[in-house]
From TrEMBL:
It comes from Dyadobacter koreensis. Belongs to the TrhO family. Keywords: Oxidoreductase, tRNA processing. The gene is trhO. GO terms for molecular function: oxidoreductase activity, acting on paired donors, with incorporation or reduction of molecular oxygen. NCBIfam families: PRK00142.1-3. Catalyzes oxygen-dependent 5-hydroxyuridine (ho5U) modification at position 34 in tRNAs. It comes from the Bacteria. It is an enzyme of class 1 (oxidoreductase). GO terms for biological process: tRNA modification. CDD domains: RHOD_YceA. It catalyses: uridine(34) in tRNA + AH2 + O2 = 5-hydroxyuridine(34) in tRNA + A + H2O. This is tRNA uridine(34) hydroxylase. The keyword Nucleus does not apply. Residues 122-215 form the Rhodanese domain.
């Protein structure tokens, strides 16, 4: 068993005091040596967290101890090291950027368990639709799935016309962990699709519980692993090196910080190009040092990793003063 865990989750539930909850949440992660990315929004939680099994177990218990999130589903994987280099707990307007103006708590596609999907994929009336970004499905997707040339979920309205002719079919949406499909499937229902499903827990859960059969390639993830194996039954490679065009399922971010494009690049080309996707990027003055992984810590956008602790200490101080008064 590998020594560290990576846990992926989301949950839609109203959060009123997002700043206060962010501060408390952040402090718990710091005290338990957890790293990762967590988004807190008025509509709920979304996170990927990594640490020791004991720390991750404590975190899952902490989240579920809140009545609002007692039913949250965690996808647990193992890794040789902590899958992040920093901790970010941020407050945002949405837990997944979409601008689709839908509320999954009101209406969304029918949840489909991994075992149910495995059976439904044999049905000729079932159509799988990938709701992830283009660079994600380039390296891996379900066999026969429809994909869109979109960079994020906000672009979905520009592509719905591509599946208009399938409104009489059973539409099954899928994504990495399930979060995008909550809104994507709701949006399809708004647009007149009537028989809409979503893979509950996403690709990751399907791989963990059903062996990933008929998922071609690898699954793109948003931590320093970049991609993970899903299919333990009939794996294959569908992507090709961006530079030499050889078969390749190894993804990198371009070393040029101003490019940062996500592309498959084989080890040989990665070394020769110093992690860059083109000669121009290799010669760029903002090219980052390539360490062989193609993963770089994103800019913090002025985020202060101690902000949550400082805010929480101020809040506790005010509460103590109020109690004495």
């Amino acid at each position: 068993m590998k020594p560290f865990q990576v846990i992926l989750y989301y949950y839609y539930a109203p959060i009123e005091n997002t700043e206060v909850y962010r501060d408390e949440h952040h402090l718990f992660c710091v005290e338990n040596n957890l790293l990762g990315r967590i988004i807190i929004a008025p509509e709920g939680l979304n996170g990927t967290v990594s640490g020791t099994p004991e720390a991750c177990e404590a975190y899952m218990n902490y989240v579920r101890s809140d009545e609002r999130f007692k039913d949250v589903q965690f996808k647990v994987d193992y890794h040789d090291e902590i899958a992040f280099q920093k901790l970010h707990v941020r407050v945002k307007d949405e837990i997944v950027n979409s601008d689709l103006n839908v509320n999954p708590l009101v209406r969304t596609g029918k949840h489909l368990e991994p075992s149910e999907l495995k059976k439904m994929m044999q049905d000729p009336d079932v159509v799988l639709v990938d709701m992830r970004s283009d660079y994600e499905h380039e390296v891996g997707k379900f066999k026969g799935a429809i994909t869109f040339d979109m960079h994020n979920l906000r672009e979905l309205p520009d592509h719905v016309h591509e599946i208009e002719h399938l409104k009489d079919k059973k539409i099954v949406t899928y994504c990495t962990g399930g979060i995008k499909c909550e809104k994507a499937s709701a949006y399809l229902l708004e647009k007149g699709f009537t028989d809409v499903y979503q893979l509950h827990g996403g690709i990751i859960r399907y791989g963990l519980e059903e062996g990933g059969e008929d998922f071609d390639g690898k699954c793109y993830v948003f931590d320093n692993r970049i991609t993970v194996d899903v299919n333990q039954v009939n794996p294959t490679v569908i992507s090709r090196c961006y530079i030499c065009n050889d078969s390749c399922d190894r993804m990198i971010n371009c070393a040029n910080a101003e490019c940062n494009t996500h592309v498959p690049v084989c080890h040989k080309c990665g070394e020769e190009m110093e992690g860059a996707c083109s000669p121009e990027c290799k010669a760029h003055p903002n090219k980052r040092v390539y360490d062989g992984t193609g993963y770089y810590v994103s800019n913090s956008n002025h985020y202060n990793p101690l902000q949550g602790m400082k805010s929480l200490k101020k809040t506790l101080k005010k509460l103590k003063l109020a109690a004495k008064a």
